[in-house]
């Protein structure tokens, strides 16, 4: 594999005496779209928070070659602010004195956001809010986008629409995507390669077509088939 845009090596994260990540290693090549699947409490959000620098690791190494932006679990928008203001905060949060991305460029990727720009975020549907959360992350002009639970609480049709946008973003704009999902079916559908995280450890990894056929993964994620 060529030099990774993201390299995580033997990462250990503890909350007090509890170990949330126990020696996690993974690597993403530029332009890849890779899934990280795992059940509730496996440590998925902890991993993203560590990549973003929100959580400090007890051991291990994270190498980021480029800028990472996170679409956080639960969207975490400012309900009382307009969509445009929520987007603007994405550029501000990217820091580093850069102007960030023009919302017009985000609307090119997510055209359905444009007519919503003046609406208060709190009045939008769940799917629309998730699109704002993706747009806000894009305002930081990231090289890597980490999307935490894209599908959570959303109708299948809405998820399919968001997934199409992510696929375009990855294929046409070369943004590397780490898709963190409890919904392995969706993740395997979107990505070529995946890691399985269970109880803070990577228990399987490889091409999604192979993982989906492994009895261990099938039992856990595809209802015993
Ligand atoms: P979910 O899908 O439910 O968010 P997850 O795979 O993202 O699950 P994490 O949220 O990363 O998992 O949690 C991993 C483990 O760390 C869990 O046992 C959780 O209870 C614990 N944990 C997470 N955040 C904290 C915290 N701030 N303090 C203490 N323990 C925590």
From TrEMBL:
- Tell me the Gene3D superfamilies matching this sequence: P-loop containing nucleotide triphosphate hydrolases
Query: Which keywords accompany this UniProt record?
Result: Amino-acid transport, ATP-binding, Nucleotide-binding, Transport
One Pfam family here: ABC_tran
Provide one Gene Ontology biological process annotation: L-amino acid transport
Top-level taxonomic group = Bacteria
Q: Which InterPro entries match?
A: AAA+_ATPase (IPR003593), ABC_transporter-like_ATP-bd (IPR003439), ABC_transporter-like_CS (IPR017871), BCAA_Transport_ATP-bd_LivF (IPR052156), P-loop_NTPase (IPR027417)
Residue ranges annotated for the ABC transporter domain, each copy included: 6-224
Is the keyword Transport assigned to this protein? yes
MF (Gene Ontology): ATP binding; ATP hydrolysis activity; branched-chain amino acid transmembrane transporter activity
Q: Which family does it belong to?
A: Belongs to the ABC transporter superfamily.
Write down what this protein is called: ABC transporter ATP-binding protein
Lineage of origin: Bacteria, Bacillati, Actinomycetota, Actinomycetes, Pseudonocardiales
């Amino acid at each position: 594999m060529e030099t990774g845009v993201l390299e995580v090596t033997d990462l250990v994260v503890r909350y007090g005496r509890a170990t949330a990540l126990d020696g996690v290693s993974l690597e993403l090549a530029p332009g890849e779209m890779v899934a990280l699947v795992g059940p509730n409490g496996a440590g998925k959000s902890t991993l993203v928070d560590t990549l973003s620098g929100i959580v400090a690791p007890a051991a291990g190494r994270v190498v980021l070659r480029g800028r990472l932006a996170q679409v956080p679990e639960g969207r975490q928008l400012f309900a009382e602010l307009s969509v445009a203001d929520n987007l603007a905060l994405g550029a501000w949060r990217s820091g580093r004195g850069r102007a960030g991305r023009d919302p017009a460029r985000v609307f090119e990727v997510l055209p359905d956001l444009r007519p919503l720009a003046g609406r208060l975020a709190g009045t939008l549907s769940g799917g629309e809010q998730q699109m704002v959360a993706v747009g806000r992350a894009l305002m930081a002009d990231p090289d890597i986008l980490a999307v935490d639970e894209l599908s959570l609480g959303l109708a299948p049709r809405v998820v399919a629409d968001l997934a199409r946008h992510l696929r375009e973003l990855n294929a046409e704009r070369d943004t590397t995507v780490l898709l963190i999902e409890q919904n392995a079916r969706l993740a395997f559908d979107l990505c070529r390669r995946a890691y399985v995280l269970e109880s803070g450890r990577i228990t399987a990894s490889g091409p999604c077509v192979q993982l989906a056929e492994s009895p261990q993964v099938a039992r856990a994620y595809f209802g015993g088939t």
